[in-house]
Amino acid sequence: xxxxxxxxxxxxxxxxxxxxxxxxxxxxxxxxxxxxxxxxxxxxxxxxxxxxxxxxxxxxxxxxxxxxxxxxxxxxxxxxxxxxxxxxxxxxxxxxxxxxxxxxxxxxxxxxxxxxxxxxxxxxxxxxxxxxxxxxxxxxxxxxxxxxxxxxxxxxxxxxxxxxxxxxxxxxxxxxxxxxxxxxxxxxxxxxxxxxxxxxxxxxxxxxxxxxxxxxxxxxxxxxxxxxxxxxxxxxxxxxxxxxxxxxxxxxxxxxxxxxxxxxxxxxxxxxxxxxxxxxxxxxxxxxxxxxxxxxxxxxxxxxxxxxxxxxxxxxxxxxxxxxxxxxxxxxxxxxxxxxxxxxxxxxxxxxxxxxxxxxxxxxxxxxxxxxxxxxxxxxxxxxxxxxxxxxxxxxxxxxxxxxxxxxxxxxxxxxxxxxxxxxxxxxxxxxxxxxxxxxxxxxxxxxxxxxxxxxxxxxxxxxxxxxxxxxxxxxxxxxxxxxxxxxxxxxxxxxxxxxxxxxxxxxxxxxxxxxxxxxxxxxxxxxxxxxxxxxxxxxxxxxxxxxxxxxxxxxxxxxxxxxxxxxxxxxxxxxxxxxxxxxxxxxxxxxxxxxxxxxxxxxxxxxxxxxxxxxxxxxxxxxxxxxxxxxxxxxxxxxxxxxxxxxxxxxxxxxxxxxxxxxxxxxxxxxxxxxxxxxxxxxxxxxxxxxxxxxxxxxxxxxxxxxxxxxxxxxxxxxxxxxxxxxxxxxxxxxxxxxxxxxxxxxxxxxxxxxxxxxxxxxxxxxxxxxxxxxxxxxxxxxxxxxxxxxxxxxxxxxxxxxxxxxxxxxxxxxxxxxxxxxxxxxxxxxxxxxxxxxxxxxxxxxxxxxxxxxxxxxxxxxxxxxxxxxxxxxxxxxxxxxxxxxxxxx
Length: 892
Fold this sequence. Notes:
Elements: H1 20-41, H2 46-56, H3 60-100, H4 102-131, E1 142-149, E2 152-154, E3 156-157, H5 158-167, E4 171-185, E5 191-198, H6 202-206, E6 212-213, E7 227-230, H7 232-239, E8 249-252, E9 255-262, E10 276-279, E11 293-301, H8 307-324, H9 326-329, E12 332-338, H10 339-344, H11 347-379, H12 381-389, H13 394-430, H14 445-471, H15 475-480, H16 483-489, H17 493-525, E13 535-541, H18 551-567, E14 571-577, E15 588-593, E16 604-611, H19 615-619, E17 623-626, E18 640-644, H20 645-651, E19 661-663, E20 674-681, E21 696-700, H21 706-711, E22 715-722, H22 731-741, E23 747-752, H23 753-760, H24 762-796, H25 798-806, H26 811-840, H27 856-881, H28 886-891
Helix pairs in contact: 1-2, 1-3, 3-13, 4-11, 4-13, 4-14, 11-14, 11-17, 11-24, 13-14, 17-24, 17-26, 17-27, 18-22, 24-26, 24-27, 26-27
């Protein structure tokens, strides 16, 4: 070997004619034999010479081991060099193949690029919303705690929060926040923003430092400290991002507050869109209040503590509190959830549903490309046969084709990244509001890595079968090119199976889209309970009163507004309400009918609506019984209430509600302040047509308790019906009237009721459009696959068709014969797709209204559509084959 010194030509085996082990052993034997001969020449007997030689070369074994290692390394380097050389050769060959067949390359790359790009775009959104950790120091330890009533999570009472904080050992900290709208006036024009009153430890619980200034101190966590922390958006909008804004004042609800800090951009721990924070400043009375549930509670678990442990502990605490405070805590439970799970909510299901749908389209696209490669592989049969004949093994051919597939996938990935970039921009712009962190969707390193991974996986999926098929080429059959071989190729099971898979996946997509379409039709037919045409709504908020509770001043201001609106010629009817359908969420109260114990267990949770006379008439909400609220229902007169049908059914089943009395909103056990039911109004889908109706009640604004104005943040909603048109023209009229009544009162959330409905249904409509588009795309791709396969099979059987027609076969006979070729794949795909749809559609349950996931009508209609279109894709190429001239076909 070349690394041994003193080598004599011809004395040893020629390197490369044996393995490394054989070569090293031969080298060792040579040196030992030479030493033995030397010792014998010196006079030693052969056995002594052998022992002396072995002793001399006793430590040669380690040298030989090193030689073996070096030999293996050299062998591996040679193999690696050979493999890289072959890889570069295969890549160059793949590029030449694509240049020779530009149409094939463009079609295959485009199909894959669209699939890879759309899948990457949806994945990027899912990663930003669901998979990416929250931007907090200990995001995995953050949890939210809810008061739970009748298996529904709700905000916590301040008294319950105080007890959890005092008794729990699972949390390092528990913080509370009360969210609501605030009027901000840093300049001449007031604006309404979402704000929160928070405990001083709110920011430290989340582990977030301010970008500018500081947060609240414990000394400031008391009533009326008049300090505020701004969001990055409000700071830049009202102060131009000036760091000197800290130390200046801002007017909130008519009161001056000192700005002490600014939070970083994107800080929105509950996805409520809050833009400023002030101290909660709990009083002693609030810390014992267990009846008013206003507060969101966020906790930081101790290291090692789990959600389950915290849940078990707080459940035990809740049971103890139920015994200690039966009047307010009977029936209440506690629910602990990960903060991320709360924020993500149903968006997890929505995004993964879309990702699955897009992935299904990508799978169909891979099937189409695989069929293209199978057809191309058939045309390259001679090439593979020649390569096999000159010594190329099956593995070498498979490796070459997989390299070509990877080049194809890489080109699709590059183009797919551009599709993904455009898709992300479109998705963020078109997606419904309220999806947390969706605006953070980016095509970053994670997205690029995902696109690359998808490209590699797709290359394997669509390239493996064609590569294996080409690697097992029948050399003798191809060389003979006999009719028998050609006929055998017309029974291509791989291509038929791919078509069946494409049909099955397309059917699943179409069934899902069909269910959403049927649900949308059902929702469109739902009577919302009021007339939307010409109805316009807008919120109006008053500042804090200079002194006292300001109830009289608020009533007078709103009276002036509604009176002025009714006098305008453009307006047919107008009224005020604390909560209009489809808009502001409002507040709920527990109502106890007369004759039942005044405890929380017997209370009926209902939505409160403070209204002015004429509200039901302006909304066109029918009165089922009794009368509407009138101008005579003022403070000092008999307290009255109008209830919805749902509330009447719950409070007095099988009885008339008129004349019955019910306690709510004010009073004590000794003086419950009964309100007499004077009317029953028809039910209204206040939360949108996709939600069930719930109990509601209407109180005259002039009889509303003082606390109610605090509950609604001194804000009311104007509802005005246009005399002509859709109501959009009423916006400047309402703004002018409000400005005359109170120049400092902002008008916000102004929209027609139809616009409110579109916003309410935006998520459902967006999902419907996407799934419908994906279903249509999947069906189009699947049918393209069916057509291409049948057309290919027909082209192979053209001579046979010519013979049959020459012998007298009719066009119908030929079409029937050739169409049957694809019938098996279509029928198999329909059966498999129908069975898979029965399972997959269960994930659509939360998106459907008025239709079941296993709706037979949708299933049958979808199967019919796919079968009809697939049959057409089968018949068309078969019909074209009947137009071939037999003489020409046989001659060719």
